[in-house]
Structure prediction request, 475 residues.
Amino acid sequence: MHTLKTFKTFLINTNTMELPFAESWKIKMVEPIRKSTRAEREQWLKDAKNNIFMLRSEQVYIDLLTDSGTGAMSDRQWAALMLGDESYSGSKSFFELKDTITRITGFEYVIPTHQGRAAENVLFSHLVKEGQVIPGNAHFDTTKGHIEARKAHAIDVTIKEAKDTQLEIPFKGNVDLEYLEQLLKDNQGNVPFMVLTVTNNTVGGQPVSMKNIRETCELCHKYGVPVNMDSARFAENAYFIKTREEGYADKSIQEIAKEMFSYADSMTMSAKKDGIVNMGGFIATNREDWYEGCKRYCIPFEGFITYGGMNGRDMAALAVGLEENTQFDMLQTRIHQVEYLAQLLDEYGIPYQRPAGGHAIFVDADKVLTHVPIEEFPAQTLTCELYLEAGIRACEIGYILADRDPVTRENRFGGLDLVRLCIPRRVYTDNHMKVIAAALKNVYDRRETITRGLAITKEAPLMRHFTVELERLGE
Ligand SMILES: Cc1ncc(COP(=O)(O)O)c(C=O)c1O
Prediction:
């Protein structure tokens, strides 16, 4: 016979259901997108010389090329646009942005730039000289480009575990401290700064732990080397610290971000990611000497120091975006969607860089297109196949992006060959994730039949992936 207590429990169990996870926003405006036929896509890809950067956006059904500048602004950001102050100097919007950045990062000096690479250009113009060594946890391509264009050397010091795509560890973006120390010892006096990228985009949007951030910065400082944090996705990194690192569960994202930046000397920011604006970036630092140096380059390259390449309205929208996207719910919604796509790929057995990254899934093309020789660029081939399958535009983060060695001019085949499925913020629904996973499964199921890849017919000497032209082999 049931006691009253067990009866009550029974009632609760049958009536109470755990609520499923859902987005922390609702949709106010939509943009129609269109499907195409395979025949259309064949022609369009041929016209684009097998380089998906050369496709027109109308030729794309689901666009996963990048999460950069492709996010959906909130109603508050659109409202802020109307309040933007377009004064050439001393814009109110600049000071509002500067105050927000200082509050979130702790950095007092702020120089706006039109995007992240412009921030790198200004800072590196002040800091980088020919022959110097700049270590980093897998420099982003523009970062590497700005270093190598100045005839300096970008040396990757990411932990070697990052190259094993099937290894599941929580902070795969970390720096290999032993290797870094050796590099700092061997190059004393020749390292102007280190680049610490959070999250580590190139190895799969993988986070760097607070412990590793602190120890990396302490190590660099021991050798008199400052640290610039490449912060495009700093809020996503803070989310992973909160959810994965002991001691941070009860801290807010903004508290975690403040601590991350407290160890570094400066940050360069592509605000098009975690700032959720379509265009914008900045440099921030507490070093007055760097600020003075950057001012000299900002004015001729970007514009006066209180707008540096940004409209007043864009600075206003960025201030709101930074505030919104350093809230836990917003980040949880985003990262949950990326994890959902990862779960679907798991169901189909498709190999990707594990665990799922913050902004993207990086499919391990070498493990999918095992019959395509590396000299024929498996990741670029898979990118093209996915587009042909369903009009989904992904992005090669692999051997083409790796460019040639600046000295030997040989292709760099030493790294990972990945296809990045990059998820724009607040843009697609989970139904789109289902389409992406199904399209990829279709390609995966016929992977054995794909035996030839692509050959380069034209390439730029640096950052070739944007404009490279390729032909399909075996046709
Ligand atoms: C880690 C990282 N750093 C720098 C950049 C360059 O920023 P932008 O595209 O705004 O020039 C990017 C862009 O994707 C990035 O992911």
